Amino acid sequence: MEERRYRSASGAPIALRRRQHSASCRELAVRGPRLQLRSLSALTSAVWLAAYGLFVLSQNSMVLSAAIFITLIGLIIYLHFVKIDQESLLVIGSLGIQVTSSYASGKESTTFIEMGQVKDVVINEAIHMQKVIYYLCILLQDPGDPQGVSEVVPLFQSSKPRLDCLIEVYKSCQEILEQRKTAPQSS
């Protein structure tokens, strides 16, 4: 297993882990920055101090109870549905591509794309907030038109790695896709 350090589009540190299981099977995982206890504590303290200020002014204890309740529910929602710690891509040449997102709460979301549906893996560019950002995506083959693309599936949407990291992932994916294209011709 090999790990390299990169930066995301926003400048946050990320790590790319590459693991080659076999010649036609690779796992690529991008781990984003961990949840910072300092920022979480600061946000919670600010909400609770504001609630305490409202309590002093209104003398209503429901304000404190509501602040605690809203903070805890917000934290649970953030950890379970928003904060993604790691995004991984498992490419198996003979089978397909598995995309997994691991949330801070431990929940995982997995999508599998059969290799027969994959037309190509490409690096695309987009303009976002007056910046050009690059992203990796899987082009799915249109069943009605072999030359067409039916859908574009973007990868690493949470970690948003910069181009140098995307090129590394792209090359690994292309090596496996090339093996798949040349395998039927050689037999």
Descriptive tags:
9 strands, 187 residues, three-stranded antiparallel beta sheet, 36% helix
Give a verbal description of the structure:
The protein folds into two domains: 2-32 and 87-100 and 112-182, no CATH class; 37-81, no CATH class. The chain has helices spanning 37-58, 61-82, 163-186; strands at residues 2-7, 13-22, 25-31, 84-92, 96-103, 108-114, 118-128, 131-141, 149-154. It is an alpha+beta fold and 187 residues long. α1 packs antiparallel against α2. The chain crosses the membrane at residues 40-57, 63-82.
Distance between the termini: 31 Å
Task: Provide the residue-averaged pLDDT.
Answer: 90
Low-pLDDT stretches = none
Individual helix count? 3
Number of domains: 2
SS-derived structural category: alpha+beta
- Give the strand line-up of the largest sheet: 1-2-3-4-5-6
Pathway: Glycolipid biosynthesis; glycosylphosphatidylinositol-anchor biosynthesis
GO cellular component, one term: glycosylphosphatidylinositol-N-acetylglucosaminyltransferase (GPI-GnT) complex
Keywords: Membrane, Transferase, Transmembrane, Transmembrane helix
InterPro entries: PIG-H, PIGH-H_dom
